Amino acid sequence: MISDRIFGAVVTLVALAYIASATQIQTSFLSDPVGPKTFPMLIGAVAAICGIIVVLRPDEDPEWPQLQTLGALVFSVIVLVCYAYALKPLGFLLPTAVTAAILSYQISPRPVPAALAGTGLSLGLFAIFKFALGLSLFALPAAFHG
């Protein structure tokens, strides 16, 4: 319960600081009747209300994951960061297949189904993104297509 209360207090303080910074927005003479300050102030007010509710009505103390689970999460984040950096030089298919296979293996440690899932996701997502959504993706590294 204490972690929820701390989180709620931090959210409330950040929301109040956000509202205070929204009051500093300069308005031009050609602004709409609501003005540019209203939307950020509404967002800050909703966040402050949510933070206060969390402080007043916290959940039971959570059961934090074991160290092994936290290590798996950190590893997943590292894999996803490497994926983001690998997309441009290596194209879409290879990095997506490898990343999806690694993450699938973490969910169910069976190598063949993980590799098939990675390959299937890579090809399926490429088809959806390239042909259905019209995104300009490169399937392979730039060196392969000049």
From TrEMBL:
Domain DUF1468: 6-137
Protein name (database record): Tripartite tricarboxylate transporter TctB family protein
Keywords, in A-Z order: Membrane, Transmembrane, Transmembrane helix
Lineage: Bacteria, Pseudomonadati, Pseudomonadota, Alphaproteobacteria, Rhodobacterales
InterPro entries cross-referenced by the UniProt entry: DUF1468
Membrane-spanning segments: 38-56, 68-86, 120-144
